Amino acid sequence: MTRAASAESVARWATEPAIDLWVVFGEPAGDAVERDGGVVHEAAGVPSSHVVFDAMRSVRVEDVRRVGVVSRSREGLVAGRQSGAGAVIGIADKAADASRLLDAEPDAVVTEAGFDDLYAARFGSGRRLRPQVLLNPGPALTSDAVKRAAAGVDLCHREPEYVELDTRVREQLRRMAGVGEDWGVAIISGSGTAANEMALRAAVRPGRQVLVVVNGVYGERLRAMAERAEIDVVVFECGWTEPADPAAIGALLDEHPVDAVALVHHETTTGLLNPAQEIAALAREAGVRVVLDAVSSFGVEELVLEGSGIDFLACSSNKCLQGLPGAAFVLVSPAGLTRLAEVPPSSVYLDLAGYLRGAETGSVPFTPPIPAVSALAAALDELFAIGPAEHRRRYAERAAVLDEVLAGIGLEPIVAEHHRSRTVRSVPLPPGATFMRLHDELKRDGYVIYAGQGALASEIFRVCCMGTLEPDVLRAFGQRLAALLEREPSAA
Prior knowledge:
Blueprint: H1 7-15, E1 21-25, H2 32-35, E2 39-43, H3 49-59, E3 67-71, H4 74-83, E4 87-91, H5 95-102, E5 108-110, H6 115-123, E6 133-134, H7 144-150, H8 160-177, E7 184-189, H9 192-203, E8 209-214, H10 217-228, E9 232-237, H11 246-255, E10 260-264, E11 266-267, E12 272-273, H12 276-285, E13 289-293, E14 312-316, E15 327-332, H13 334-340, H14 352-361, H15 370-386, H16 388-409, E16 424-428, H17 435-444, E17 447-448, E18 450-451, E19 460-464, H18 471-486
Parallel strand pairs: 1-2, 1-3, 3-4, 4-5, 6-17, 8-9, 8-10, 10-13, 13-14
Antiparallel strand pairs: 7-15, 11-12, 14-15, 16-19, 18-19
Helix pairs in contact: 3-4, 7-15, 8-15, 11-12, 16-18
């Protein structure tokens, strides 16, 4: 399981091997498992899944995903696959034997001498690639169901099966956004940055200006996107812990005949929320289109889209929706669609109109991120099973726990409480502490924190509560962080 449910599960992730029992068909390979304290069962007789299950019963291992199968024969590997074992490894010292074993679709085929190295790298208690509590602002922890969806069947994106998947996901996204079928939805392969750049290029007519709100790294990125697209930019800039002032932006709209406003809803740089609804309302009154970076807010922060003045909403799959990285999307209002028809495409790949035409005809313009879209569908199914309101409530609960944890340690986020998001906290580094020492100590215990960015890079660290993690895990993290900071500063 990769849901961070308790401090005990995190401790197991950080210290235990990935596999509790290795069932060996034929002669054992190496002794790395036993040196690591693992259990090896040398199976006798004809390989079958029943032999694997009998071995599990004999040592009281209940989860077949915690079982590995090692075999020098194709039959043994097939038995491992049929049992659902978490690892299936072939042993072959000759190329001809390796080719034959690959037909059974093991996770790897290695030589006898190479098994110990493979074990140490992928399965041992000291392996680098292990589940960890990701306290970074995405990618976030995901459920097993989401990962299984990504590992589903191979699809051709020109066939009806993918068109059905794409249509379903776009319908789910409209439902999540609370908008009607008159809104366009384009799904693209890329990060949230790709969605932002696509939306920004589509929102400004040739020769017109865009007003970009800058109070963090991601606002700066929007400005850079506009400049690279050779769009004339009017900048509204304020402090990185201050939400943008709608009245001041309204005054700029009166002063400058801009074509669009671009701003970040949740500035992940600090965990700051900008008043997107108020700014969009002013822009709507001025007849100005709005591009909103909702990459790390969509699905969790309160946001009403219908009639709001928000016309291009850029998002990604791997943050508050709890999908996997690789898929980004743009929602486009009816007014945004009208604007889109007036803007010649300035990019081949980031042509928003082309993606929307493809969605209508069932022929996407470029190869989509099929595994990430499949995973996003599963993540949205999970979200709707509990309901968007409950999803938001759980995030609010976790954010409150995180605030409680930090306050108990004496750490105050740099953003005022009433301006904070439900996911990100930026915290000053204590005197004498360095981020890398703090990061490395916490990572050894299974917790991954995130560095500051831009001008704040040397001053803060960030802790986030996205993904499939429970409040008790945040409390356990707080205990570990407190223990580290109680040491001499040089220890952190």
